[in-house]
């Protein structure tokens, strides 16, 4: 970028923030102490400036913020960024100025709350109410300038920054039990710790999140973990954040807990108890299955131990990285193999909603590159021939993705602008004036290429082997013709394909195929380096499995166009017939640990099955432990009643509080669109 | 090595004893409870089931059948299952059906083959879970169990028998060293009703339970409840008295019999008998628990 452009670009970002902050309300709560709220501006458009929009939508939306504000205070940030330094380049000078200007606006925003609380206090009739409002005003006055001196102040400052970071009201919360721990200690040491009051503040924090929006909000709160010496980092706040959720039981935030060899029994018990309540919270991250793969990929032990999750279950290194990810379509790769580089001709454009009933409709298209023929079906005499063609197609598609990522890496190395509001949360940025992407905070490059849906893809490959080469039910070209007709007029063949062994049932052959394609994907991605030597981190994960179902035609497993595709490392909905232990067995066959960027197993249990003395908590505990021992890195364990969900579809007005796990987030079931509701019902095992 | 005809091996069983278990359903039962949920478990030999609603009319089975068991009748597929009995082509016939309308129930296995299936879920058993041998009447397979249960113990797997307990004590006694848990059914105290609804005497079950109590074997007692059939106050009072004589019973599971097996009865071309229709099942169970004076920890209502 030409040097004079830095100032202009950062200036327009600051102007956009100024505009946004001015539009946010000044909210003083009617009870409690946590001030600040805004209605997320989901439809807010910054006319004509796509770059600023992109900042809000991507960089500014994702990843946990750094700790500079909490550690230094806003006054210190302003002091350290007010002047250009002798060592500054045009870029660092402009960025430093941008941080300064934005934090001035942040300070003004907080002081607006101070002023409003004072006004309300002056008008309050009761002494107690006046004191409460004055206390809010005093707290706002302090955190607008100084670093927090206790848990309540730290939570307040975090909350102000969190709600300002994005017009969408979303984004990663991160390891808040770790970040706020020093402030809890301050309270404790001066005898000011009041657990009940802190719990009320956290409940109010959760309440505000739920008031803003719910669903795919990226509001991931990661709890516990271990340090680089392997010491457990569970603390009193870990339990406080969990307990607050047990009291509120709403969709937000999305709770995650890191489990490892030294996890205290009390934390295990808390997780089991919460999961047994059937809300799908928390998601469990097994450190022992995640950290070694991170280290193998060159991430230092210290950085690896700082991991939290962002987006859904993508690993992010708190205070050390952001995330940028792309999603490969594994099942569509089977289609391109069958149709020799082309799409299934029976596909038509589908108008769909991403997840919410009220979301706008859009028409998705495949992101894969068409036109590459990996082999002619007529020339394939064996399943080995077919697998060779599939793997050649896969290699080609991964190469295309890596070329796209390489371009993005080059852009980031050269000119991508991280919002200075986020930049200012990193001490290295304040010190150097550098964008976090270029020396101002991030020590880990976190580009991710993800591909889940290996389950449905393996079902497809096994069905080809079974139906064409073992049983001779059809020829490869006959199968392709049936798929091209979306199986219209081919019901007998479709039934035979549905009868082929499926992933999630403990079938060794189909599990081995799923493992083989996973390994192929992981190895190619892991081995690649950008021109500047950077890695791309792989994961066996997909957020957009619902989109994939609407852009992938009929498949060899007997699936028709638009029928569901399995998410992440979980079976195709409705195909796992042997219960959750067989699903874990299938998942354990995959090299899931190598997909440390995000490899998740979603297990949905039937709530209605816990009768006749079945000890729900004991069974959940066994499933958790066995999954951990089987090498599963991330486990989402939810529990629904099939009948209850079906009833909620019929009478949504009676089920407003029914919370379900979707992909990386929780949502109110009745607010999801019907396609996704059906998917969730069908994945119950 | 002995073999047995296995109806099903069900992983992740959470209702047949403590923890996560694998339940092995053996074929063959000398009783015929009117509400039996698994009617396909009653005959000792492998047999065919036909689920008419799943048939897509492909006629694959017609081409295969040499006994004339299948015919098309105005587009409807008719099967005479009696002709399928002992047919050596049953497996091929079931496999020929693309839609799973024809299903073969019963697979012959020896103890080692069965153990291999049971081991699949071993990582999930923990200290509590394990294998449950059910049926049919599992104790009719005592000779097979004398090979299978020791194999389980050698592999550190907890064992449980789910049984009517209505067999000679000798069949039971020899197995006890290899059994950790017993799930036993108590269906009736009234002998005439027992005969009428199960086709067998009930006194032997009660005598066996008494013998077991002297040996301090861990028992979970199961009481299937059918309204108007085995839930009278007199029946419950007799059960309550009987329970007092069984100190080794760790838990009593009262549950309402359902009609979930109706489709299987039709697939066997038998008429299902319905119980507890239009009943408040929870209230039925609660009444029974109350009259048995079971505490919350003893009974197994949904937790």
What's the structural blueprint in terms of helices and strands?
The complex is a heterodimer of chains A (685) and B (303).
Chain A: H1 3-23, H2 50-59, H3 68-72, H4 74-81, H5 90-123, H6 127-143, H7 151-164, H8 176-179, H9 181-189, H10 195-212, E1 220-223, H11 236-248, E2 254-259, H12 265-276, E3 283-286, H13 287-296, H14 301-305, E4 307-310, E5 314-317, E6 324-327, H15 330-338, H16 383-414, H17 420-423, H18 427-432, E7 447-450, H19 454-470, H20 476-484, H21 491-498, H22 508-527, E8 537-539, H23 545-551, H24 580-588, E9 600-606, H25 616-629, E10 634-640, H26 642-650, E11 659-661, E12 666-668, H27 674-682
Parallel strand pairs in A: 1-2, 2-3, 6-7, 7-8, 9-10
Antiparallel strand pairs in A: 3-10, 4-5, 11-12
Chain B: E1 3-13, E2 21-26, E3 47-50, H1 60-64, E4 70-73, E5 76-79, H2 90-96, E6 102-105, E7 107-110, H3 111-119, H4 122-125, E8 130-134, H5 142-154, E9 158-163, H6 169-173, E10 181-185, H7 191-198, H8 203-214, E11 218-225, H9 233-244, E12 249-256, H10 262-267, H11 281-291
Parallel strand pairs in B: 2-8, 8-9, 9-10, 10-11, 11-12
Antiparallel strand pairs in B: 1-2, 1-7, 3-6, 4-5
Helix pairs in contact in B: 3-5
